[in-house]
């Protein structure tokens, strides 16, 4: 089976071919990601109109490149999977409409995919992980802990009550005058900083509810940056280091609640697994903190390679493949409308999606 995946929900124009042999073992045959960073950098963030136009201009070439790199043509493809939401409406329309056109013209099935399901199932592509597992999804627009019990079977256990973690990184970077996208900039600056210089808050730490909050942290950064202005390079490094330290400690405290719940609900599992996914999962300090947390609690940690944490189409192709082989195709995919908002737990499909 070979699936062509298309991803255009934010500022990456991406296409990929993912295949699966008779044993079910997956292979990424190509994974083309064209980032629009240069187009948006001057504005310090993603500008929706610019993003949509850039997707229109780039998508055909990116799809051609993905097919060529995979050594195949449309005739060798069994189905087209495209991100149908959540994300910026302009980009979603471009990707989904293109996918519909290709599917209709080539007579192939179309599989509309929830972008978050792509992030959620990546660990099965990279590590062949079995269900159930606990998912920490940390990205530009989402921060959630999700119980994953099957394809299309997601239960949210915790969410952020304000900013997403990626958003907190991006806003912190912007405040400090660091380049977009903020996550990698903050991580880089933090490497030479002194995390102990500032005592930033650990929002919700110690509370029984399992949720996240990051806006207070961002406010503390703003206050410190204002007090110290004009900022020396060492000030920026110290703020980033203290911010990242606060983030890792907060995450560890919050995630621990859900590890305990997961263990209670699955006493039979010898080595339960936490998966970290989404763009922020590329952060080395966060991976290290989660690794230590899992180690201390008898969990295994699965973190996909950085390239597959950020937005890409291999995860969309893979989610499409998983839907296809679990019989979770939409009845009328050519009429499927893009969904700018689309919670992962509503990507759920009929109950026959159970199992591995
Ligand atoms: P969503 O997946 O929620 O719809 P998105 O697709 O825009 O949002 P991703 O592409 O999955 O988000 O992740 C992008 C986010 O990841 C950005 O906020 C970016 O700053 C953050 N990020 C990327 N690399 C790092 C890093 N090394 N450290 C921290 N954050 C990072
Ligand atoms: Mg992006
Ligand atoms: Fe994403």
Automatic annotation (TrEMBL):
<feature type="domain" description="Gcp-like">
    <location>
        <begin position="28"/>
        <end position="318"/>
    </location>
</feature>
<keyword id="KW-0479">Metal-binding</keyword>
<feature type="binding site">
    <location>
        <position position="170"/>
    </location>
    <ligand>
        <name>substrate</name>
    </ligand>
</feature>
<dbReference type="GO" id="GO:0005737">
    <property type="term" value="C:cytoplasm"/>
</dbReference>
<feature type="binding site">
    <location>
        <position position="183"/>
    </location>
    <ligand>
        <name>substrate</name>
    </ligand>
</feature>
<dbReference type="Pfam" id="PF00814">
    <property type="entry name" value="TsaD"/>
</dbReference>
<comment type="similarity">
    <text>Belongs to the KAE1 / TsaD family.</text>
</comment>
<feature type="binding site">
    <location>
        <begin position="137"/>
        <end position="141"/>
    </location>
    <ligand>
        <name>substrate</name>
    </ligand>
</feature>
<dbReference type="InterPro" id="IPR043129">
    <property type="entry name" value="ATPase_NBD"/>
</dbReference>
<keyword id="KW-0963">Cytoplasm</keyword>
<feature type="binding site">
    <location>
        <position position="283"/>
    </location>
    <ligand>
        <name>substrate</name>
    </ligand>
</feature>
<feature type="binding site">
    <location>
        <position position="119"/>
    </location>
    <ligand>
        <name>Fe cation</name>
    </ligand>
</feature>
<dbReference type="InterPro" id="IPR000905">
    <property type="entry name" value="Gcp-like_dom"/>
</dbReference>
<protein>
    <recommendedName>
        <fullName>tRNA N6-adenosine threonylcarbamoyltransferase</fullName>
        <ecNumber>2.3.1.234</ecNumber>
    </recommendedName>
</protein>
<dbReference type="GO" id="GO:0005506">
    <property type="term" value="F:iron ion binding"/>
</dbReference>
<feature type="binding site">
    <location>
        <position position="187"/>
    </location>
    <ligand>
        <name>substrate</name>
    </ligand>
</feature>
<dbReference type="GO" id="GO:0002949">
    <property type="term" value="P:tRNA threonylcarbamoyladenosine modification"/>
</dbReference>
<dbReference type="InterPro" id="IPR017861">
    <property type="entry name" value="KAE1/TsaD"/>
</dbReference>
<dbReference type="GO" id="GO:0061711">
    <property type="term" value="F:tRNA N(6)-L-threonylcarbamoyladenine synthase activity"/>
</dbReference>
<keyword id="KW-0819">tRNA processing</keyword>
<keyword id="KW-0408">Iron</keyword>
<dbReference type="InterPro" id="IPR022450">
    <property type="entry name" value="TsaD"/>
</dbReference>
<keyword id="KW-0808">Transferase</keyword>
<feature type="binding site">
    <location>
        <position position="115"/>
    </location>
    <ligand>
        <name>Fe cation</name>
    </ligand>
</feature>
<feature type="binding site">
    <location>
        <position position="311"/>
    </location>
    <ligand>
        <name>Fe cation</name>
    </ligand>
</feature>
<keyword id="KW-0012">Acyltransferase</keyword>
<comment type="function">
    <text>Required for the formation of a threonylcarbamoyl group on adenosine at position 37 (t(6)A37) in tRNAs that read codons beginning with adenine. Is involved in the transfer of the threonylcarbamoyl moiety of threonylcarbamoyl-AMP (TC-AMP) to the N6 group of A37, together with TsaE and TsaB. TsaD likely plays a direct catalytic role in this reaction.</text>
</comment>
């Amino acid at each position: 089976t070979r699936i062509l995946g298309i991803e255009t929900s934010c500022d990456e124009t991406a296409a990929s071919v993912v295949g699966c042999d008779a044993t079910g073992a997956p292979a990424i045959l190509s994974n083309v990601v064209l980032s629009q960073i240069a187009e948006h950098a001057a504005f310090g963030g993603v500008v929706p109109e610019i993003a949509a136009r850039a997707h229109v201009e780039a998508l055909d070439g990116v799809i051609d490149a993905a097919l060529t790199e995979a050594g195949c043509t449309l005739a060798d493809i069994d189905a087209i999977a495209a991100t149908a939401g959540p994300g910026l409406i302009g980009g979603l329309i471009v990707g989904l409409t293109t996918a519909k056109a290709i599917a209709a013209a080539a007579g192939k099935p179309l599989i509309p995919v929830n972008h978050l399901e792509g992030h959620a199932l990546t660990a099965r592509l990279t590590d062949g992980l079995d269900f159930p597992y606990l998912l920490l999804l940390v990205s530009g627009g989402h921060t959630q802990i999700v119980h994953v019990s099957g394809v299309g079977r997601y239960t949210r256990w915790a969410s952020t009550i304000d900013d997403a973690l990626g958003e907190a990184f991006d806003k912190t970077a912007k405040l400090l005058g660091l380049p977009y996208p903020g996550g990698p900039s903050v991580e880089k600056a933090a490497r030479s900083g002194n995390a102990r210089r500032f005592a930033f808050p650990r929002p919700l730490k110690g509370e029984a509810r399992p949720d996240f909050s990051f806006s207070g942290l961002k406010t503390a950064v703003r206050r410190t940056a204002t007090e110290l202005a004009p900022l020396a390079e060492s000030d920026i490094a110290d703020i980033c280091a203290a911010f990242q330290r606060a983030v890792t400690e907060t995450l560890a405290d919050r995630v621990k609640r859900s590890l305990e719940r997961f263990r209670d609900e699955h006493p039979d599992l010898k080595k339960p697994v936490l998966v970290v996914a989404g763009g922020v999962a590329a952060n080395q300090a966060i991976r290290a903190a989660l690794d230590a947390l899992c180690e201390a609690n008898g969990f295994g940690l699965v973190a996909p390679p950085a390239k597959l944490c950020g937005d890409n189409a291999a995860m969309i192709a893979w989610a499409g493949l998983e839907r296809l082989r679990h019989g979770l195709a939409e009845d009328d995919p050519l009429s499927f409308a893009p969904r700018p908002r689309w919670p992962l737990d509503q990507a759920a499909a009929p109950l026959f999606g159970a199992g591995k």
